Amino acid sequence: MMIRLAIHRMITFLFIGGLFVPLVVLLLSEQSDISTIEKRRLAGLPKLEISYKSIKGYPKKFAAFLEDHFGFRNEIIGLHNYVYCKVLGISPSRAVVAGKSGWYFLNMNGAVSDYLGRIRYDNLTLHRMESLLEDRREWLNRKGIKYLFLPIPNKEMVYEEFLPDILRKHKGKSKYDQIVAFLEKSNYPDYIDGKRVLLAQKKAENIYFRTDSHWNALGAYAFYRELVYRLQLWFPWMKPLAEVDSLQWRSGASGDVAALMHVHGKVTESVPGMPVVLSCQPLATRRMKEIRNVGQYSHIPDHRLPVTTGCKSGKGKALVIHDSFGEGLKPFLNQHFKEIIYVHYMNFEVAKRLIEDEHPDIVLDLRVARNIEKALEPDPDLEQSLLRHTFKGLEEITSISSSEAQRRLVKIEGGDFPGGDGQNFSLGLNGAVVEKMALKIDITAAEDMDVRFCYAPAMNSNDKKSQKNRQCQLRRLKEGDNQIYLRVLDPDNNGIFWVVLEDKKEAGQYLINKITAKREK
What we know:
By secondary structure, this protein is of the alpha+beta class. The protein has helices at residues 2-28, 52-69, 73-88, 111-115, 123-141, 155-158, 165-169, 175-185, 194-201, 217-231, 256-260, 330-333, 348-358, 372-375, 380-390, 402-405, 464-468; strands spanning 34-35, 40-41, 96-98, 104-106, 146-152, 249-253, 269-272, 286-287, 307-309, 317-321, 339-343, 362-368, 395-400, 408-410, 424-428, 436-445, 449-456, 471-477, 480-489, 494-501, 509-519. It is built from 17 helices and 21 strands. The strands form 6 sheets. A 6-stranded mixed beta sheet has the order 5-12-10-11-9-8, with helices on one face. Strands 13, 14, 16, 19 and 21 form a 5-stranded antiparallel beta sheet that branches. Strands 15-20-17-18 form a 4-stranded antiparallel beta sheet, with no helix packed on it. Helix 12 links the parallel strand 10 and strand 11 (339-343).
């Protein structure tokens, strides 16, 4: 009887002690503000103030703090998620899709929606993207710099056979496929179709990680080889690196997708080592703090600065604009160029000043499919700069003379459709078939103001098709005379052009002096 009572008491004390252990761990351990596993900010310890609002909200805030910081939280979540992954074959995180045979896929940045083809570009949007690439290429060519666009497929585009059947059943046309198909159709030359390269290589070996969203060293190497063969057209001295005699493998690796499921180090795989001989020891990587002397870069924190390195025995200079997939290419590219600049946190439009100052021999613009839209955002300043130089030599289609165009517009209310006397101008093409039309607008502003210059096919406000084909660009007018250059794609024979203030509450005054339309070659 006494033994049984002692056992019951011991169990009771252990139970009560177990309830307090997490609290003791919470009090004694150092609290973190960021969860590196869940990739989010944790709730902080709330402050209690003598006010009705603070007292009322304190219980809820304190409960959130306890949920984020109680003792052994990470261990308990890790065990729970491990059982989900390894035993049930289910992803414990909405950010990850569990596939077949131990493959896991990222479900962030719209990756799965893109695979399902839920974003469809119209022809005008694709044409605008292609024109942007042409502008970059032309702008750089005028400076003696080469340009190569490098789109990379998402993991699920290469290994879709490991996706759940329900997703494969509803597969659509991705943004990547739409863009590359348009570039091929329009004969845009300076890009490499990474999906074509990697689909061919996967037949020989695994080229993406199972527990990570990126390509492995073999995938990066396959793309690197194709890149070198392409660059040889411009730089004949470039040769692919020699392969190692025996490829080394490392077990126990765990990537970013595993981390998102809180099973990093628990769900693992074997990964390949470097498949080539790295004969050159690259120079020490240096952050380019000196670019902060340029006003537009003055605010960039250290970790977002471009970095520079290179190989003493290399040749030439390259600038690589990239996302996280660029990290896998660095060991290969570092072997070739005497100097190479890596720009991770800027798009092309932001990096233009850096490109002008550094004047590389080539700019490589690399983006994985889930980030491809960010790489192809409109660049009105680049368009303005190029058309300013080329406009004089273009063939004129039509113009609105000074006497016809001079209209003083006061207190114009913003809007998506031209309305009211004197707001819109007919830009007929006189029967000409034009793919790209360049406009030059001579306009005088009474003050600095933001305005939108818009073009659309002949229409009325209820014409949904015409509204869809509307093209607008925001430009900044300075007080006094301005010359605005912009491009219209696939113009209509009876198109309409108009100008509206961007801020609907702002009153402004401007004078359109002349509009000239020319056919862009």
